[in-house]
């Protein structure tokens, strides 16, 4: 890399449940709110100096279409001189927006830019408009299971019998409890942009907290849930992320520019990697992508002091942890809980991982390196390794 | 709470504006506790704005009770997308038949809205969109207001013949002082209902803060938290000793007199009284006074006529009475304008701006044609300079206009309008010539004001494509367009003319081709009676002021000066020749035209207006002077007689069309309902024609 890429700031809207508090709110309005909230928090940045706006959405039609990147820039009131584009890598959309912008900054073509993502799964249910090529199945390029994410999670249980339902449920409950504690401690609210939401029946409100968390979750309750992806399966709505609406936005800059403008530096990007796996076990994707990124960074897994792993499914997280010999309840992993509690509005989640990691960096100056990683449909993983700018030496 | 209010019989069912309450956690905004946010939403989109009828006011009352019961840190009110609230539901007002009922509605609004002002918990209005009349008054009762940058606000009551009677006339002067209150309540309303842009409302102090729509609600809550925390301080001045009270009220009075030609019209003068009283009144006293005024006004014929006129204008703007199916209209892709004088140039400008198709102009020589084109292009440039048009749009439109001395350039036109000298034979020749150039379907339109359109079709191969298309000067400003059909004009031609008129954003009536159509026929008859009276020996001062108390925007001779004696004489001659001797030709006017005296009034160096001695010297010295009362009586009788004849002849089919014409073409005031409601209520219609034009209750008290 020719130049160091830094995270200046990142924010998100509270996440809603599909059909819930954002049922009457447009996806692009959520995205606009995140961008405006981000800029309001960073008044030193002249909006005209933003050189690009990369916005991800997994379904790019309707209120997530029209080139949501450019569209969100214009609707946010950014000057029309600021360009924008849209990104799609399914669940890793926002993560890819961040890495793509980072690539541009590292190459010296951008100094400061916005990366983010949005998904309104109420307006755009999973699979909307999908038309899989019949060759997939006819030529056995993938098996049927590869096209349904819940089925790929069941396949992970099949592949790794040590990943029991009980472990998955326990991990899921812990995610809920960590999120509940983080909320109680005011840790999550810090990066939420209050977002107006209207219901024709109830009137206007302002979302100030995630809608999905279930702090009252118990192991007994989880054990009794149905397994919608196969009879007597292991994957339940309780140990999976739900269907959610939300938007995220991050400001990235070259280190020089950030220093010149006196901007906060919340994290420094070391490297990133994406990698593919069998689509039938897409949840395993973070393993090869993390291995690749570690290799690029010249680091070992032991060097990583903080993990933000997207919790599409609990089994996919513990598969990752198992591979690297990390305990399911390791304190370095998702200290504020994760997607199982707060939700996973597909293409927006990557930036949520990053903003959580930045908070961990801030709170733990003894941590030097952190990882944000997530699995991606059709068999991929994505990993970004970050360095803590607050690092003060190991304890 | 007030007694139950049931809608009067016949009134349409109220579209109820619901008031929905939700709690907002203020901690996310750095505040403490919660805000009870009331959303006004009638369940329809922005095309049916929120309004306040009795049920809606009660819904708000319940919402305020609900909100207070939540013990919030603040209460706020906002609207549905694009709309805060467009004011009182006027639809039931025309059906009220009991003053007590009317009084109760006014009082109900006060009783509910004032709870927002009297609340010990701070109240806020987040004016996210259009807020008119009672809608803005809801906001005025609140302790603080924010507005979205795109929201328009106004107190249009005086425009409608009412007063801001749900607190506005009392609160606003106390809030922003007499000068600015007069601006909003009087001057804006009287100036054709001018609305405030958000930045104007902010500058005037009507609102306390302004935010962009993208995150208006969030920012407004942020503002509220700032106020609650004490970090945002909003200072309120005490205007009771403001030195500007006298001058502000005088300004308001002058504006009211000017608007109605010197007449003392109830609504603006009552509004002024309420504003004046607000100086020392308590709010409670002010609200009581508003209730009384509102009840008086709503139980008056002028208000009923005004509501009738307002609804008529709204309705007929969209739907033209007797129009053929729009599908019959032919596409207009090129327009011709014959003549390049001022009228023709105005028409060319209007056509090119609205239709955005090639517009070709001709005149008797190339230089004149080019002068017309240059005028149009210069007007477009002026629009750019005033930032009302983008340079691209102006360039596009300029390039669409061209001129020539050769009428061959009309080839390919779908619509040609002539605005040449008012001489029948010239127009007949012109249309014959045009038939050799344009297609048989091309509409040939004439902007004649009094000549027979029928006779212009004589000798034409395709007379069915000729139509009268009569604008009023200045054509860009005056909203009326009279579309005159001859006995042969076909539906496709009429539909095309209507379609063009719609593009030009005109209000239209379809009339039979009859001399003077509607507006000029009535105006000329009316003015003829006044000039007759003068010619008979009535002092011009007496004759010209005879109608003052009715409230016309200008006196007959002021109108004469505006039109010019030449045109007026020409029209009266044409009508005299075609309609008979009741249209007399005034020797005074003939002399004025002959001597080149163009004005009856002159403006002195100090701005005062006085009778022009040159005109006075030419006045016929008759020996049978009339009193003002007699002049007024004969002029009104003439109007009633002529209007009835027009309806009997089928010039138009409904009295409403005549009213619409006088409202939109002559600028006659709404409190007259155009004119026929006034003639009805003054007993003139019955005494002259034996019957009313409108059934009781249509534009009058029941």
Automatic annotation (TrEMBL), chain A:
Any one annotated GO CC term: cytoplasm
PROSITE patterns in the record: THIOLASE_2
Domain Thiolase C-terminal: 264-387
MF GO annotations: acetyl-CoA C-acyltransferase activity
Entry keyword Acyltransferase: yes
InterPro entries: Thiolase, Thiolase-like, Thiolase-like_sf_Thiolase, Thiolase_C, Thiolase_CS, Thiolase_N
Keyword Transferase: yes
Similarity comment: family membership: Belongs to the thiolase-like superfamily. Thiolase family.
Protein name from the UniProt record: Acetyl-CoA acetyltransferase
Automatic annotation (TrEMBL), chain B:
Pathway(s): Lipid metabolism; fatty acid beta-oxidation; Lipid metabolism; butanoate metabolism
Entry protein name: 3-hydroxyacyl-CoA dehydrogenase
UniProt domain 3-hydroxyacyl-CoA dehydrogenase NAD binding: residue ranges: 334-513
GO molecular function: enoyl-CoA hydratase activity; long-chain (3S)-3-hydroxyacyl-CoA dehydrogenase (NAD+) activity; NAD+ binding
Keyword list, A-Z: Fatty acid metabolism, Lipid degradation, Lipid metabolism, Lyase, Multifunctional enzyme, NAD, Oxidoreductase
Species name: Actinobacteria bacterium BACL15 MAG-120619-bin91
Lineage: Bacteria, Bacillati, Actinomycetota, Actinomycetes, Actinomycetes incertae sedis
GO biological process: fatty acid beta-oxidation
3-hydroxyacyl-CoA dehydrogenase C-terminal domain location: 516-596
Family: Belongs to the 3-hydroxyacyl-CoA dehydrogenase family.
Matching Gene3D superfamilies: 2-enoyl-CoA Hydratase, Chain A, domain 1, N-(1-d-carboxylethyl)-l-norvaline Dehydrogenase, domain 2, NAD(P)-binding Rossmann-like Domain
């Amino acid at each position: 890399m020719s130049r160091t890429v830094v995270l200046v700031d990142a924010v998100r809207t509270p996440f809603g449940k599909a059909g819930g508090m954002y049922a009457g709110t447009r996806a692009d309005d959520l995205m606009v709110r995140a961008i405006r909230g981000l800029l309001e928090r960073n008044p030193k940045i002249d909006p005209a100096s933003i050189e690009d706006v990369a916005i991800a959405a997994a379904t790019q039609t309707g209120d997530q279409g029209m080139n949501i990147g450019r569209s969100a820039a214009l609707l946010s009131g950014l000057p029309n001189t600021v360009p924008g584009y849209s990104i799609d890598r399914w669940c890793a959309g926002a993560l890819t927006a961040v890495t793509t912008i980072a690539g541009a900054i590292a190459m010296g073509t951008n100094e400061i830019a916005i990366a983010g993502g949005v998904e309104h799964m109420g307006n755009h249910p999973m699979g909307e408009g999908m038309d899989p090529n019949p060759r997939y199945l006819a030529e056995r390029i993938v098996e049927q299971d590869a096209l349904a994410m819940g089925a790929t999670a069941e396949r992970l249980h099949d592949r790794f019998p040590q990943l029991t339902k009980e472990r998955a449920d326990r991990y899921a409950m812990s995610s809920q409890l960590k999120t509940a504690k983080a909320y109680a401690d005011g840790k999550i609210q810090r990066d939420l942009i209050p977002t107006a939401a209207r219901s024709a029946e109830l009137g206007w409100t302002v979302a100030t907290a995630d809608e999905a968390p279930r702090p009252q979750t118990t192991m007994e309750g989880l054990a009794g849930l149905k397994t919608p992806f196969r009879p007597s399966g292991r994957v339940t709505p309780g140990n999976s992320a739900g269907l959610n609406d939300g938007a995220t936005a991050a400001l990235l800059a070259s280190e020089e520019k950030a220093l010149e403008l006196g901007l906060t530096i919340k994290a420094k990007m070391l490297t990133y990697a994406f990698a593919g796996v069998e689509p039938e076990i897409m949840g395993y994707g973070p393993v090869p992508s993390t291995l690749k990124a570690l290799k690029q960074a010249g680091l070992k897994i032991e060097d990583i002091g903080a993990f933000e792993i997207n919790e599409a499914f609990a089994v996919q997280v513990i598969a990752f942890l198992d591979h690297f010999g990390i305990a399911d309840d390791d304190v370095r992993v998702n200290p504020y809980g994760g997607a199982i509690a707060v939700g996973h509005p597909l293409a927006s989640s990557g930036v949520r991982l990053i903003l959580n990691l930045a908070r961990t960096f801030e709170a733990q100056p003894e941590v030097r390196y952190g990882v944000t990683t997530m699995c991606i449909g059709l068999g991929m993983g994505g990993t970004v390794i970050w360095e803590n700018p607050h690092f003060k030496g190991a304890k | 709470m007030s007694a139950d209010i049931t809608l009067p019989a016949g009134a349409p069912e109220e579209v109820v504006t619901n008031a929905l309450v939700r709690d907002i956690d203020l901690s996310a905004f750095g505040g403490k506790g919660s805000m009870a946010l009331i959303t006004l939403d009638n369940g329809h989109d922005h095309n049916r704005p929120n309004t306040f009828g009795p049920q809606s006011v009660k819904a708000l009352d319940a919402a305020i009770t609900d909100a207070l019961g939540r013990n919030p840190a603040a209460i706020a009110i906002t609207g549905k997308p694009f709309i805060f609230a467009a004011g009182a539901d006027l639809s039931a007002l025309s059906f009220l038949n009991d003053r007590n009922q009317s009084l109760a509605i006014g009082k109900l609004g006060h009783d509910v809205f004032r709870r927002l002002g009297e609340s010990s918990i701070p109240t806020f209005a987040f004016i996210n969109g259009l807020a008119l009349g009672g809608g803005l008054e809801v906001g005025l009762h609140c302790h603080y207001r924010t507005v979205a940058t795109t929201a328009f606000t106004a107190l249009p009551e005086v425009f409608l013949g009412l007063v801001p009677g749900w607190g506005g006339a009392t609160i606003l002067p106390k809030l922003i002082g007499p000068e600015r209150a007069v601006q909003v309540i009087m001057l804006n309303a009287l100036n054709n209902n001018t609305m405030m842009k958000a930045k104007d409302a902010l500058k005037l102090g009507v609102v306390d803060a302004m935010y962009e729509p993208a995150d208006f609600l969030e920012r407004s809550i942020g503002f509220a938290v700032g106020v609650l925390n004490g970090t945002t301080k909003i200072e309120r001045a005490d205007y009771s000793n403001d030195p500007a009270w006298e001058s502000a009220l005088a300004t308001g009075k002058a504006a009211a007199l000017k608007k109605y030609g010197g007449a003392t019209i109830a609504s603006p003068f009552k509004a002024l009284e309420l504003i004046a009283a607000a100086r020392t009144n308590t709010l409670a006293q002010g609200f009581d006074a508003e209730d009384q005024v509102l009840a008086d006004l709503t139980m008056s014929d002028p208000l009923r006529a005004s509501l009738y006129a307002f609804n008529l204008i709204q309705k007929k703007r969209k739907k033209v009475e007797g129009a053929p199916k729009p599908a019959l209209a032919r596409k207009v892709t090129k327009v011709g304008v014959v003549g390049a004088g001022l009228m023709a140039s105005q028409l060319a400008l209007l056509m090119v701006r609205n239709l955005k198709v090639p517009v070709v102009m001709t005149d008797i020589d190339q230089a004149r044609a080019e002068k017309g084109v240059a005028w149009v292009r210069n007007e477009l440039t002026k629009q750019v300079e005033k930032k009302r048009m983008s340079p691209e749009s102006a360039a596009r439109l300029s390039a669409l206009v061209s001129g020539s001395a050769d009428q061959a350039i009309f080839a390919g036109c779908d619509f040609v309008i002539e605005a040449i000298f008012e001489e029948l034979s010239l127009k007949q020749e012109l249309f014959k010539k045009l038939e050799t150039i344009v297609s048989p379907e091309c509409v040939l339109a004439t902007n004649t004001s009094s000549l027979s359109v029928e006779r212009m079709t004589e000798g034409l191969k395709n007379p069915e494509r000729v139509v009268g298309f009569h604008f009023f000067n200045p054509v860009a400003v005056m909203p009326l367009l009279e579309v005159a059909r001859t006995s042969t004009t076909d539906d496709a031609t009429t539909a095309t003319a209507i379609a063009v008129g719609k593009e030009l954003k005109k209000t239209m009536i379809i009339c039979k081709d009859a001399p003077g159509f509607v507006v000029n026929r009535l105006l000329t008859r009316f003015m003829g009676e006044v000039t007759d009276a003068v010619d008979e020996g009535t002092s011009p001062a007496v004759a010209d002021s005879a109608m003052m108390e009715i409230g016309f925007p200008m006196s007959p001779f002021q109108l004469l000066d505006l039109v010019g004696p030449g045109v007026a004489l020409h029209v009266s001659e044409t009508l005299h020749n075609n309609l008979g001797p009741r249209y007399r030709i005034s020797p005074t006017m003939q002399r004025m035209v002959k001597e080149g005296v163009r004005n009856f009034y002159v403006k002195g160096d100090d701005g005062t207006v006085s009778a022009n001695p040159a005109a006075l010297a030419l006045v016929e010295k008759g020996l049978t002077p009339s009193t003002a009362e007699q002049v007024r009586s004969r002029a009104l009788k003439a109007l009633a007689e002529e209007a009835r004849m027009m309806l009997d002849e089928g010039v138009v089919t409904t009295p409403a069309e005549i009213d619409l014409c006088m409202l939109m073409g002559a600028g006659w005031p709404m409190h007259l309902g155009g004119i026929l409601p006034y003639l009805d209520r003054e007993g003139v219609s019955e005494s002259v024609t034996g019957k009313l034009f409108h059934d009781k209750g249509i534009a009058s008290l029941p």
